[in-house]
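Protein data:
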Amino acid sequence: MPVIALDTSAAVAVSLIDESGRALASRSTPEQRRHAELLAPMIVDVLAEAGVDRGDLTAVVVGTGPAPFTGLRVGLVTARTLAFALSIPVHGVSSLDALAVGAARALALEPGAELLAVTDARRREVYAARYRVAAAPAHAAHGPLVELVDGPVVDTPQAVAESIGQGALAVGAGASLYGEHLSAAAGAPANPDPADLARLALARLAAGAGTLPTEPLYLRRPDVVPPAERKRASA
């Protein structure tokens, strides 16, 4: 029962896992400007490496951000289109959730520990959310679970550190980028792993979640907006 997961919130990344949560194949690139060109070939490569036909996929999972508009949209549209073409469900999971889960596993954090997942929002701002490590799930292969404590938000690194970040272990590329305000934990992943997106989706569905929406978390208005309609001159 293979599940494919895509994330374009930070890197362009694709992972394939089985029903136990075991990673079968993955691809990732830090490229930030060619999401549409890179994503489809990466999906093909991951399926080929694992020896899985796309018709065998049982679900698509996609990272919902937060992230800048263009890159995130490419991942969401690709995931929805693939799921529609294969007549399989598509599930959305916050990319920051996956980053937190990957960090909790990499750092072997105990239940109750709190961490701040931080990614780069550009404009000298970060996306961030605070999490608490939960007790191990029934299916240990799915990995650790986390509970959202605060956020997600987009703000300056200093503001995040002084508000939702106090006392929490900072992880992610956003924390590394702004080390003067957020001291990144050594050994934690820099970006979300799509395999963790898929594991979280499977764990949440097994726990009874009815739907996992794929609505994007932009947290900002897009830079490009339609021009205001011009007023007609009165006679």
Remarks:
- The first strand starts at residue 3 and ends at 7.
- The beta strands are 3-7, 12-17, 23-29, 59-63, 90-93, 114-122, 125-133, 146-155, 169-171.
